[in-house]
Design a protein that fits this description.
146 residues, alpha+beta, three-stranded antiparallel β-sheet, 6 helices, elongated
Length: 146
């Protein structure tokens, strides 16, 4: 059995009682910060993206967290409208309570001179770096093993 509890702005008394409950010998407690991607969150996010955005996300994850726009446009494929889905799906998930408000967007666009140059997973070298969570969450969809 798995029980998930979300407590927003707990009072010290409530926090103390929850911590005491978690300290019981048979309890298994894991805490996921609201600003971190998990493999489960990553897969849920991927499943809600439109097909072209799913392809782009997979290419970026396969590219170790970044992919040049020219590579994404290979074979005459367009990026028009596809990249907006990343923020839209995240916003919808936050609004409906699927994901916490503090969860960062998993992909950012780098635009130089009005032209999209690359997409990347932000936060490399920090605890908030989402690439590893996406690699694990999308493992069976990726073309190579990590």
């Amino acid at each position: 059995m798995k029980i998930t509890i979300t407590v927003e702005n707990p009072t010290p008394e409530v926090l103390e009682k929850l911590l005491a409950l978690a300290a019981t010998p048979t309890a298994v407690v894991t805490a996921v910060p609201d600003d971190r991607w998990t493999p489960e969150r990553a897969r849920s996010y991927y499943d809600r993206l439109p097909p072209r955005a799913q392809q782009i996300l997979l290419q970026v994850v396969e590219g170790q967290g970044e992919c040049a726009a020219e590579e994404l446009k290979a074979n005459g494929r367009s990026l028009r409208g596809s990249t907006g889905a990343f923020r839209r799906v995240l916003s919808e998930g936050k609004r409906t309570g699927l994901w916490p408000d503090a969860l960062p967007v998993p992909l950012v666009s780098h635009i130089v001179g009005g032209q999209l140059k690359k997409l990347e997973v932000p936060g490399s070298g920090t605890e908030q770096y989402a690439r590893l969570a996406f690699e694990e969450g999308l493992r069976e969809l990726l073309r190579r093993d990590f």
